[in-house]
Amino acid sequence: MNSMVEPFPGVMEALRTRTTEHHERAEKHPFQKALVSGRLPRPAYRENIAQLMFIHAELEARLRTLRESDPRVAAIIGENRFHSGTFESELRFLGMEPGAAQALPEVAGLVDELRVLAAREPLAALGMVYVLEGSTNGGVFIAKAVTRAYGLAGPEGTRWLNPHGEGQRPAWIAFKQAMDGAGFTPGEAEAMVAAARWMFDAVSRVGSAVLAAHPEAGVSGPSGAR
Which of 9, 98, 177, 226 lies most in the core, judged by the most C-beta atoms within 10 Å? Predict the structure, then answer.
């Protein structure tokens, strides 16, 4: 019996087409609408950065370990895919030391869920990266809205939205090509799709948690944002 497994040729297409519902739900979340429209109070804006920092830090720890054991991951995940340092710099710019930030209970739960998912299927982490790297496509435009809303003079305060700067488009194209060229099996691709769906929902859950912690925003998150 032939033990060889045919590689899955279109993992990026699978990620795009099979996460549509979760992606659209995340984009329509009240937090995202408030962010894009510039209606989010500055404290809630900063809180969101702090909470996402915990998600990124946990994911990056998993990725650093994974790329040491899997050459395919090492080829996809370079240092330019690690953004937790950017989140730390953003917090300092906005007047908060990263060490003073505390994970909200919902976010602490998400970090635990991420840890369990990555332990069960390590390559699921790449599906999560797909969501976060893909968000930089829209982040370029959201950063402009945020800059106007808060009267920011430069990229500081919005780098978390557009961490690649002028190199955003090439960075996204390189990610797509590396993912499709890695030769993942159908089973590995399936795990990435499931993890990407989880990450889209996780971003919404972070938004709901931030809104709940900042009622002054005057925006309510949907109940049960899972």
Answer: 98
